[in-house]
Amino acid sequence: MTYSEVELAFDAGQVRSPLGRTVWSLELSLDETLALVPGVPSDLPRRPDVLVIGGGIQGLAAAKACEESGMVVVLIEAGSRLALGSSGRAAGSLCPELHFETDGAEFVDLARQSLRIYSEWLVGSSCLRRLPWLVLDPSAYLSGNLPPGACLLSRSETQACEPHVVARRAVWIPRQGHVNPLRAASWLASQLAHTATGLGALSLRLHRGRLAAVRTTQGDFWPKHVIVASGGYGMPVGGRTAVFRKGHLLATGEAPFRLSSVIAAEGGNVTQLPTGKLVTGGGASAATSREVCEHDVALSLQRLARLIPSAASIPVDVTWTCFRPAAVDGRAVVGRVEELSDVLVTQGHERTGLTIAPAVGRLLASMILKPGTAAPRCFLPPKLALP
Ligand SMILES: Cc1cc2nc3c(=O)[nH]c(=O)nc-3n(C[C@H](O)[C@H](O)[C@H](O)COP(=O)(O)OP(=O)(O)OC[C@H]3O[C@@H](n4cnc5c(N)ncnc54)[C@H](O)[C@@H]3O)c2cc1C
After folding, report:
1. By C-alpha distance, which of 257, 255, 232 is closest to 242?
2. Cα–Cα dist 318/280, whole Å
3. Which partner from 24, 142, 208, 272 sits 20 to 30 angstroms from 127, CA to CA?
4. Interatomic CA distance for residues 75 and 87, integer angstroms
């Protein structure tokens, strides 16, 4: 029999091992940490309904959605821990209503669904908080198109709402969200039947335009369907050029005040954790070094002091970096590979992979179960130059 192979790269070093310990890992219990390192269980089914490649938030959510639809699912992660890349190192912001201007109505709908699904999936985990957001000095678009339940605040109203924050005006948006992204990943992983770490997919083996097998670092799998959720690696990005945008985050020590909302501002958000620590940062550079850049951290601190002057004297606790996986054309790549109907892709989510992971997971599950289901136009379809 003649086979052809689609290679799946997975190790460029930088994305799986950026530097700086995150505040999220410091918050995890031993059991939560252990759920992220299953290793390679000896009883992994080799012929599952679905093999998910990639243990970031997209892969975990897709696996969870497929499993709850009754499919036998195996998730494999090349790294030594689940959510090792940007998924376990992101800011954890979930604000669907802020995406109208940049990402459009379809995206916002998926982000709203995701917030609802997170509430179901993470019940009992204490990692999802439903919080109001305060958008400082909002764009003309947001001020003129207020989300449901939101209100525009003057300078004095803003100050009454958040006494430590400085802004000319603000938009207050009720019931958005925030997660500890690593705890969310651990919680989802603990609900999955079959996960493995330290197990990388090497290639998809094809026969007559169909998936025949998946070659991995630990033998072959013969799944009915594959979901490629490998961030910016593998194919790469559904056949489109991948780029990685480096960002930085920091957590301060405990602040001597309490914020009642997530503070959103040009360049990054400020979120107060239940411990009183402030998490902030952002940036998107083309740098490829794994190190934390002190200059970028200093810029975030300056912005924090401008937005919340009383935060200026709080010492920094931890700083870390990570890389957003993106398709060079901008939008994320989600859907079924046209020429290879048993392979689906969710990649290149850049800034919003956490925000829409659950809804994308359910979309992919329904694409498998109901082959006529189409992906929304806010995503790019995967394009593969097959051998
Ligand atoms: C500073 C910063 C802050 C952010 N804040 C937010 C935020 O507040 N809200 C939000 O929604 N998004 C945020 N993001 C973006 C978010 O982190 C990403 O969009 C999201 O994590 C992407 O998830 P993913 O699962 O697609 O990719 P990844 O997290 O990169 O996971 C992909 C996984 O696949 C594995 N893999 C790759 N190839 C293979 C292979 N061949 N075999 C097996 N495994 C493989 C990788 O090792 C990796 O673990 C932020 C990003 C950064 C950098």
Report:
1. 232
2. 11
3. 142
4. 15
Q: Which residue has the tokens 């490629």?
A: 228
Ligand 1 site, residue 63, Cβ cutoff 6 A: no
Nearest 5°: phi and psi at 98? -85, 0
Give the pTM.
0.96
Q: Are the C-beta atoms of residues 302 and 283 closer than 8 Å to each other?
A: no
The tokens for 127 are: 């990692």
Q: How far is the CA of 56 from the centre of ligand 1 (A)?
A: 5
Q: What residue segments make up the domains of the chain, in order of their start?
A: 4-88+182-239+329-369
- Can you tell me which atom of ligand 1 is nearest the CA of 58? 25
Q: How far is the CA of 283 from the centre of ligand 1 (A)?
A: 16
DSSP characters for 166-195? --S-EEEEEEEEEE-HHHHHHHHHHH-S-E
- What the block records as the tokens of 67 is 């499993």
- Answer for the pair 320, 18: CB distance below 8 angstroms, yes or no: yes
Please state which CATH class domain 4-88+182-239+329-369 belongs to: alpha beta
CA–CA gap between residue 182 and residue 354 (Å, rounded): 11
Radius of gyration of the chain (CA): 21
List the beta bridge partners of residue 7: 203
pLDDT single digits (tens) 187-209: 999 999 999 999 999 999 988 88
Virtual CA dihedral for 169, 99, 278, 245, nearest 10 degrees?
-130
- What's the rounded Cα separation, in Å, for the pair 231 and 60? 12
